[in-house]
Amino acid sequence: PDSATNAGMLELEKALGRLERPGGCYEAYRRIGRDLREFVFHISDRDQFLSELNQQLAGHPHYPIKIKFFEDPLWSDVQQLVDDLGLS
Asked: Is pLDDT of 54 > 90?
């Protein structure tokens, strides 16, 4: 990306990092490549996560992000990543 886009992406990453807190939200992993950055968080409360995300991004420019929520009590998404990387 150009330098302005890259700077924006780094600011978004910093804001996402400030969402982490014990027992509530933490980043499980991220994937970067092919013009895509994917951040996967495990959260305890969807509404609280969205509220804190909006607080962290207040004053930021609009980011072209998509947010998907899904339940994964068996951590199958993380296990699939571990398997894909040959770490199991």
From this structure: yes
